[in-house]
Amino acid sequence: MRITRAQRNAVAERITSLERTFYGRGPRNVQVSVSDDDPVSLVVLSIDSLTVADAVLGERGHREAVIRHHEALHEATRADFLEAVEGIVGRPATAYLAQVHPDTGSAIRVFVFSDQMHDDDGSGGSGG
Questions:
Q1: What are phi and psi of 112, to 5 degrees?
Q2: What percent of the chain has pLDDT over 90?
Q3: Sorting pLDDT into bands at 50, 70 and 90, what band is 124?
Q4: How many beta carbons lie within 10 A of that of residue 74, not counting itself?
Q5: 23-63 pLDDT, tens per residue?
Q6: Helix (H) or strand (E) segment spanning residue 21
């Protein structure tokens, strides 16, 4: 499996759009990295992705509230992010993970695509 530069750019644009839609603002920057070996991992790093409310909570000592807020957002929007990236890549992800750092606002999303998982049982899936 190979993820092209055009696909990486499309992923960055789509992630920015989704974050803008769901969080009320988009990240300052999005970087997309891809590994070459199986399983292929597509890593999306969103820079400065905290909302104003998250930043206030973090500055006033409520880091756990920021983490819980983003965990809930990640769970609630999981299908949207998976559908978007899988549509661009043209394959179902075998795993998806997402987390945000409550101080820096760096958010990471990891999409895993495994040829071996597809070869073994043919189902693929979106576990995580």
A1: -110, 135
A2: 78
A3: very low
A4: 19
A5: 888 899 999 999 988 899 999 999 998 989 999 999 999 99
A6: helix 5-23
- Sheet strands side by side (includes 95-100): 29-34, 40-47, 107-113, 95-100
Contact of 100 with 66, CB cutoff 8 Å: yes
Token output for 111: 């999409």
Q: How far is CA 30 from CA 1, 15, 74, 82, 128, in A?
A: 23, 8, 17, 17, 22
Q: What sign for the dihedral angle of Cα 59, 65, 66, 67?
A: positive
Helix (H) or strand (E) holding 44: strand 40-47
CA distances for 82 relative to 42, 47, 71, 89, 106, angstroms: 12, 20, 16, 10, 19
64-92 per-position pLDDT tens digit: 999 999 999 999 999 999 999 999 999 99
Nearest by Cα to 110 from 23, 28, 19, 33: 33
> What is the reported pTM?
0.86
In which residue are the tokens 């990240």 written?
A: 27
